């Protein structure tokens, strides 16, 4: 009797699970920015703007730790295990944040939660690219990374609906529902075919490739082509391969670009509602600005990916960064409401949209043996920018430099990142 052939599944099913993981990730990262105005007024906490910025930065320190550790882990133990561990980690961490009794407690809880959040991004991006058709890698990567902005949209909508009546703790407690995705992931999320091939588990890899309609012979040919010019370094993997002569310069340039972009993203995520309140807008309108920024990010991710698959990521990153920088400069001016919303939209498109392009470029440029490490390492170094972003925002708000500098501080990194783009080599 012949063995029954397992039913064929679409690779979009893998993308959906990775997307849902990053929805949770985006919600947890952006929820802090929606709660800052209430945290500043929490009875007995006496939290200053600089202190609130420090809590936001501690979250990102944890994220950096998680990213640095997750890169080599996803290359050594696999994408699937690390994704599930990360989801469980920050589900529990969200409950702990809801129980915080002081700024120190909340800062520590956000730091620990950030470790789990950092653990999922390299695995999700690597898995998405590895299950994507070669001509749609940027698009599939963008579909996954839109989960981050969708999570931010959910966070902003829930804050508008619940924050005033139910308080900031409710928004963190809702993060416990992240864990509901774990049973689905356990039974249905496959391991990376590329990872299995690198580990010599060819029979298992072939079965998965057949089930998800991947060209297994082409995967093997690509592996052989990657090894051919680099026989001297191919025995290396993880960070050793990333820092080899072949990839070192590219990795450092991309890491510095990530630094600039992350400074913008996390500075705005933490402080945009408060900055707009300082400009005279009520809290409800300020949360709407955060929502519009996430909508701009979704358009930037999907539209940028569509263009990148046709023109190349380098040709799309530069105009996106210019749009982001000009939008931030425009926000420093007194604009009509429609133009103001357009500028906020452009800030999301140029910052978060560009970050998606960077991650997709890394995943396409580096081989599977170090893909997770390249993603995790570049993002971990880039997280220094995400740590500085909330701190800079808190310092500017507390120093009364004026509305203009609230946005100039985030426009400058966009200009710097744009100057780096021409120096990045073309993806292989």
Automatic annotation (TrEMBL):
<keyword id="KW-0472">Membrane</keyword>
<feature type="transmembrane region" description="Helical">
    <location>
        <begin position="170"/>
        <end position="189"/>
    </location>
</feature>
<keyword id="KW-1133">Transmembrane helix</keyword>
<feature type="domain" description="Major facilitator superfamily (MFS) profile">
    <location>
        <begin position="14"/>
        <end position="428"/>
    </location>
</feature>
<feature type="transmembrane region" description="Helical">
    <location>
        <begin position="315"/>
        <end position="331"/>
    </location>
</feature>
<feature type="transmembrane region" description="Helical">
    <location>
        <begin position="82"/>
        <end position="101"/>
    </location>
</feature>
<feature type="transmembrane region" description="Helical">
    <location>
        <begin position="403"/>
        <end position="424"/>
    </location>
</feature>
<dbReference type="InterPro" id="IPR011701">
    <property type="entry name" value="MFS"/>
</dbReference>
<dbReference type="GO" id="GO:0005886">
    <property type="term" value="C:plasma membrane"/>
</dbReference>
<feature type="transmembrane region" description="Helical">
    <location>
        <begin position="374"/>
        <end position="397"/>
    </location>
</feature>
<keyword id="KW-0812">Transmembrane</keyword>
<dbReference type="InterPro" id="IPR020846">
    <property type="entry name" value="MFS_dom"/>
</dbReference>
<feature type="transmembrane region" description="Helical">
    <location>
        <begin position="288"/>
        <end position="308"/>
    </location>
</feature>
<dbReference type="GO" id="GO:0046943">
    <property type="term" value="F:carboxylic acid transmembrane transporter activity"/>
</dbReference>
<feature type="transmembrane region" description="Helical">
    <location>
        <begin position="249"/>
        <end position="268"/>
    </location>
</feature>
<dbReference type="InterPro" id="IPR036259">
    <property type="entry name" value="MFS_trans_sf"/>
</dbReference>
<dbReference type="Pfam" id="PF07690">
    <property type="entry name" value="MFS_1"/>
</dbReference>
<feature type="transmembrane region" description="Helical">
    <location>
        <begin position="337"/>
        <end position="362"/>
    </location>
</feature>
<protein>
    <submittedName>
        <fullName>Major facilitator transporter</fullName>
    </submittedName>
</protein>
<feature type="transmembrane region" description="Helical">
    <location>
        <begin position="139"/>
        <end position="164"/>
    </location>
</feature>
<dbReference type="InterPro" id="IPR005829">
    <property type="entry name" value="Sugar_transporter_CS"/>
</dbReference>
<feature type="transmembrane region" description="Helical">
    <location>
        <begin position="107"/>
        <end position="127"/>
    </location>
</feature>
<feature type="transmembrane region" description="Helical">
    <location>
        <begin position="50"/>
        <end position="70"/>
    </location>
</feature>
